[in-house]
Amino acid sequence: xxxxxxxxxxxxxxxxxxxxxxxxxxxxxxxxxxxxxxxxxxxxxxxxxxxxxxxxxxxxxxxxxxxxxxxxxxxxxxxxxxxxxxxxxxxxxxxxxxxx
Amino acid sequence: xxxxxxxxxxxxxxxxxxxxxxxxxxxxxxxxxxxxxxxxxxxxxxxxxxxxxxxxxxxxxxxxxxxxxxxxxxxxxxxxxxxxxxxxxxxxxxxxxxxxxxxxxxxxxxxxxxxxxxxxxxxxxxxxxxxxxxxxxxxxxxxxxxxxxxxxxxxxxxxxxxxxxxxxxxxxx
Lengths: 100, 173
Known about the structure:
The complex is a heterodimer of chains A (100) and B (173).
Chain A: H1 3-24, H2 28-53, H3 57-87
Chain B: H1 4-22, H2 26-46, H3 50-75, H4 81-88, H5 91-113, H6 127-134, H7 139-160
C-alpha cells in the first residue's frame, strides 16, 4: 500500500472510532475523550499529507491543533466541573434541561 | 511501501482506541488512550517527523492526559476512593496496556538501532523547515494561538472558581 493511502486510512479509522464513541456515549468525560481522539486523527492526517507533498505546512497545522486541543481540554474540564457541581452527575442528558 | 513496523503500530493504535470506546471505567479508558497516542507517535516517527512525534508524546500523552487523570481523581474524592483504587489496579487491568506499550517500545528500539529511513515515496520535512514556516508566513497564526492559550487559561480559571456563599452574617450559623 502507498504510504499516503495507509496513513490516511489509519487517520480515517481513528476519526470514525472517535465519532462513534461521541455518538454512543452519554458520560460527558467520555465525550471529551472522543473529541481528543478525533482531533488526534485529524492531526495525523495533516502530518501524512505534509510527508506526501514535502512541505512544512502540515506539521505547522499539527502544532496549532496541539495548542488548540490543550486550550479546549482545560476549558472543557472546567465546564464539566461546573456541571458536576450543579447537577451532581456526569450524564450529558441531564444538561439538556437548561432552565436558568 | 510501508514496512511491517507501520502496520504493527497502526494495529496497536486501532486496538487501543477500540478499547477506549468500549470501557465503562474512565480510568481504564484513559490508560488505553495513552497507549493509542503513543502508537500514533510511532506512526508519526515512521512518516519522517520525529519532532512532531516527540511533541505528541510530551503534550498529548504527557500534559493533556495528566490533566484528565488529575481531573477524574479530583471528582471522586471520598472514603471509598482508596478501596476503588485497589480494585482498579488489579493486574488484569494494566497487563494488556503494558503489553501493547512493550511492543511499541521494542519497535522503537529496533527502528532506532537499525538507523531507519522513511520509505522512498514520502518526502521528509526537517524540523528546521517547520520552524522557518512557523515564524515566517504563519507568524500571525502563532500569535493568535498564544492569545487562544491565554483565553483558555483565563476561561478555565473563571469557570473553575467555586462560588462563595453570599449569606448575611446574621443568617449563617
